[in-house]
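Example record used in the benchmark description.
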Amino acid sequence: MSSWSDGDPDLSPSQIIALSFAGLIAVGTLLLALPISHGAERVGILDAAFTATSAVCVTGLIVVDTGTAFSGFGQIVIATLFQLGGLGLLTFGTFLALATGRRLGYGERLRLQQQVSATEIGGLVGLIRSIGSIVLITELIGALLLYTRFVETEGVGRGAWFSLFHSISAFNNAGFSLYPDSLVRYVGDPIVNATVIGLIIAGGLGFIVFANLDHSIRGPKRVTLTLHTKMTLRITVFLLASGTVAIMVFEWSNPATLADMSLGSRLLASVFQSTTARTAGFNTLDYAEMNPATLLLTMLLMFIGGNPGSTAGGIKTITFYVLVVSIWSVIRGRGDAVVFGRRLPTATVVRAGAISFGAVMIGGAALTLLAFIEPDIPFLPLMFETVSALGTVGLSMGATGELSSAGKCVIILLMYLGRIGFLTFALALVERQRSARHSYLAEEVVIG
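Model output (structure tokens):
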């Protein structure tokens, strides 16, 4: 008889990941549909399913107000769902296994390797322990910092819950807020903004990057930064900086956003919007009032998302980086894509292209379907919600609340696909790969 750690021999790691998220969504839907989870209003089964999917997929799109529609119990359920969804159910299960002293089988290590995007199985248990420490310490520090502000407006007990809820939500890039306006009321508050920005970046940086940085700084032997870590740090800084500058320029004279703010508040709001567009979902400015150029830039940032092996969504920053480098190599007439003096394998470039193309095709098909189902909603808000759902971001121009039942179902499916990843979902649909018995002759075709 196979052990739990070995898993079902008939299921691949990708199928296990896909089913674990689907199962968690089903359980979350049932819990949120219970009367005990409801607050000021009754939440229907479809809205409960939408909320559960958004929480598990750490998206943050909502069809009912989280702070009023759900009771304290319902809010705890939602927080638990996006904590489990951000870490991954398999990762959380491993925490429990390690806490009880049970050894992990090879099958479970293989699934964990895929879920956290580790490059090798060796050292995986140590990485999982590091993830647990990082999550616990970071979320507690974030909650303590937010408490210094929330206690002033919400009181001691309620302020403590609000602080913990928003800290967990920010670190997991979930975007759920107990305030109806997200964090717009704190647009000029440096403590709230800096804390949430720090939590979002920490959660979206990637656990394997954290481990590499930790080993290079505190390890007994000097460990050099891996190519993955170097690429991650470079693209993260570039996207945050360029996004901040662009948003500030685009919104500088917009009376509905930045025009009436001081220079410091403008900079703070621009940094926050640039950060949250990388799949976090919080907002301190009203996206429905933003200029079209800012919305298009935000959609690009949402599509790119965060880093592999993190709580963030999107096609991932490294995928985008690999595409840019490979395109630049082709333009310069080079055969190989080279980064930091290292050649990227052809298989990596092909995988990046497949993920990006698949995401564009899925998003395009969903947008077309939504435009047909929801003819009364303007195209730009529909496009914005589509990219937000696929990138598991949660930013909204207000169209989500106007969706019909069919439109909500489309968004639910998009959030699910965006969280588990296009490639994981594709692999989950096929049989276990078998080695090819023969290869075919190669022949050139005309490109471009």
